[in-house]
Amino acid sequence: MSGGKNTGAPWSMIIIAMAFGIVIVGLANMDRVIWNWTSHGERLPGQVVDLSSFRTSPGATYLTFVPRVKFTDPGGQPREMNVANGSRYYDFRLGDRVTVLWRAETQSIAIDLPFKRSFGMQIFLWGLTLVGLALLGFALWMALERVRLRKRY
């Protein structure tokens, strides 16, 4: 700020605020992005016909549950397959109706689950998202103020 000229916040501060805002918003919504990436495939009706569980290693303290699902693929062929990736959570019972995500290119399936967060985690991540958006808004405001002041002098 030489000669009494006010040119606003330095660009480095604006860029840092913008970068932190983008990172915070990204981290707060990463679980939603990953869920969206992994929930691809053709949606078909299916039914859970068997449940198995196993330990991923001898020292594992939890079980991995793998449901077996029967469904009819888009070509009309009846199939019965295990879900490609198991879950630590026991979400299914025998006979449950589920939506199968059929992935023809890999000949694998997944069960389409709704996106869920616990209430406390949801509040925390929404708060984090708002902090990130506030940082982005602040950076934008500083940049616009800098441009406005520059035009004035």
From TrEMBL:
The transmembrane segments are 12-30, 123-144
Protein name (Swiss-Prot/TrEMBL): DUF3592 domain-containing protein
Keywords annotated in UniProt: Membrane, Transmembrane, Transmembrane helix
- Keyword Transmembrane helix found: yes
